[in-house]
Structure formats: structure tokens, C-alpha cells
Design brief:
This protein is α/β, with parallel strands linked by helices. The protein has 11 helices and 8 strands. The protein has helices spanning about 15-20, 40-50, 70-80, 90-100, 105-115, 130-140, 160-175, 200-210, 225-235, 250-255, 260-275, and strands at about 30-35, 55-60, 85-90, 115-120, 145-150, 180, 220, 240-245. The protein has an 8-stranded parallel beta sheet with strand order 3-2-1-8-7-6-5-4. Helix 2 links the parallel strand 1 (about 30-35) and strand 2. Helix 7 runs parallel beside helix 8 (about 200-210).
Length: about 300
């Protein structure tokens, strides 16, 4: 969270109260996970310059980190670490390593390269429960944060809500810090979304009911703005969201803070219903400018 004195619109129209709806970093809930499919160093640095306080996790999608020049990858991870952003390679890369039985080698290499976490998934392959637990242990023993993912990538083979919930509960019990709910990069026909990308309300409610308070440990993949808005409206500003394009990190934070139509309209209705805002009343006298701002001109 940026210092109050560093906010461009400090003291204007209560925007600070809107921004203060958000938990400060480091946070366990309300995280924003950016998905990176191949940003260069300059583009990464530019995004961090304007949005680092609003980004918690940075995932180098699927196997992209295996295809970058190693020096560029190391510098990128160092840059992200300097901004206190947790980094991890995509789960598909780990699945490929597991197929080749290189789990321990993979974890050691991830640590050596500069990653702070790993994503553990079986979206493409199948892992027996005991093997999944051992992979979580393997990551933690290597000094990495274990982040698991539940769900399958194939739209034709989607688990039921209770199956996702039970796996998430086991993962948390086995040591996962967060559990990502699979939706891929499209957000269509996967997990909590139907074929049109709309949230399946009943499915979401059932999944949340089984998780209870541990729902806060979930990171919902939500690549689309309407999906992000639906989840913010359902769970509040401090819901954890993932697969957010780096270029959309600030837009998502505006959505969380009630500074976009999708969430401001709800806040305005609530304020009016509670008697905190009456659009018919005249504005009060202009308040003094916030400290640090001097009046200019006549």
C-alpha cells in the first residue's frame, strides 16, 4: 500500500476511504496474481513502476520461463523480488518435470534461478493423492512457497464443486499457502465459468460452502473484467484473483477500490440506501485542501 502522502488524489471526494478498503501488502487474502506470457525486462520494469504496490504474485505462464535466455530470466526475477512480488513458474512446467520424474531437481533449480514459489498442479496429468502431498513437501523442503491449483484444463473433464473443495482442503492441510482455482487464460468452460465465461453461481456457492472460512485461501483465476467484477461483488474488495494481465493490474485495483462502474454503482446504491448519500442534497461548503497542497492562483 502506498503511503497516504504519495497518493495523487489525496483528500479529494473521500477517494482515500475507497482505496483504504484494501488490505496492505504483504497480504494473505486479496492478492492479485499477474500472468506473464512473455514480457521483456523493460515492459516488466514499466509495469512495476506504476503498479507494484498492487501486485502480489507474478506467474510466468505454463512453460515460458524455460524458453527465455537465462540471464534475462534471472534479472527479471531479481527485479520482481526487489518490489516484493512473489514469483513462480506455471504449473504445466512442473507437470512436465514430474512426467520425467525430476521433481526434486525442478525445485532446486527453481530456487537457484530466483523463484520464490512454485505452482503445483495436475491440470493435464493425474497425480495420486500421496504423490501430490509429496510434491508439496518437496517444494517446501526446497525453501519455496507451495501454491497448488485445483481443476482440469480439459473442458470435457471438469470436476464437481465438491471435488475441487475436497482437494483444496487437503492441499491446505498438506502445507499449501494458497490454492488456485483453474480457469486457464480464456476463462471459458472451466471451473466456476460456463462456456460463455459467465460465473456459475450455484457451483461457486457450493464450492465456497464446503471451504467455509478457508475460501479466503483460494485464488480465483479471472482473466476477464466481468469475471473480476462478479467475484469482487460476491466476496468483497479483498478477494484473491489470478491470471490478470500485467497491463490490467491497475484497472483491477480500481475495480477493487470502487473506482470503476461495476463496483462504484454498487457502492453508490448501498450508500444511498444507508442514508449516507443523498443526490438531491446540496454539497456542503468546500473543505480546506489536504496538507501538502498549496492553493494556486488568485
Amino acid at each position: 500500500m502506498r503511503a497516504r502522502s504519495d497518493r495523487p488524489w489525496l483528500g479529494v471526494l473521500g477517494l482515500d476511504a475507497a482505496i483504504d478498503r484494501r488490505l496492505p501488502r504483504p497480504r494473505q487474502r486479496g492478492v492479485t496474481m499477474v500472468i506473464d506470457t512473455g514480457l521483456g525486462l523493460t515492459a516488466t520494469a514499466d509495469m512495476l513502476t506504476i503498479a507494484a504496490p498492487h501486485i502480489d504474485h507474478w506467474k510466468l505462464a505454463f512453460g515460458t520461463s524455460a524458453l527465455m535466455p537465462i540471464d534475462a530470466l534471472r534479472r527479471k526475477l531479481e527485479l520482481l523480488a526487489e518490489h516484493s512480488v512473489l514469483t513462480y513458474p506455471g504449473g504445466t512446467l512442473l507437470e512436465a518435470a514430474i512426467v520425467q520424474q525430476h521433481c526434486r531437481v525442478y525445485m532446486r533449480r527453481a530456487r537457484e534461478l530466483g523463484f520464490g514459489a512454485v505452482e503445483i498442479s495436475d491440470g493435464t496429468i493425474s497425480l495420486p493423492p500421496d504423490r501430490r502431498r509429496r510434491v508439496i513437501d518437496c517444494a517446501r523442503n526446497a525453501g519455496l512457497v507451495a501454491i497448488t491449483e485445483v481443476g482440469k484444463k480439459d473442458p470435457a473433464h471438469q470436476p464437481e464443486a465438491v471435488e475441487l473443495a475436497e482437494q483444496a482442503l487437503k492441499d491446505i492441510e498438506w502445507g499449501a499457502a494458497w490454492v488456485i482455482v483453474e480457469a486457464r487464460e480464456s476463462g471459458r468452460g472451466i471451473g466456476i465459468y460456463d462456456d460463455d465465461g459467465e460465473v456459475r453461481g450455484g457451483f461457486l456457492a457450493e464450492l465456497s460452502r464446503h471451504l467455509g472460512a478457508l475460501t479466503d485461501r483460494l485464488i480465483w483465476e479471472a482473466p476477464r473484467k466481468d469475471q473480476q467484477a462478479a467475484l469482487v461483488q460476491r466476496f468483497g474488495a479483498n478477494v484473491s484473483l489470478g491470471n490478470v494481465a500485467a497491463s490490467e493490474a491497475l484497472a483491477l485495483e480500481a475495480l477493487r477500490s470502487g473506482l470503476r462502474y461495476e463496483t462504484l454503482s454498487v457502492i453508490a446504491e448501498q450508500e444511498q440506501a444507508a442514508g449516507q448519500w443523498n443526490p438531491s442534497l446540496a454539497e456542503p461548503a468546500e473543505p480546506p485542501l489536504a496538507s501538502g497542497f498549496a492553493a494556486r492562483g488568485a
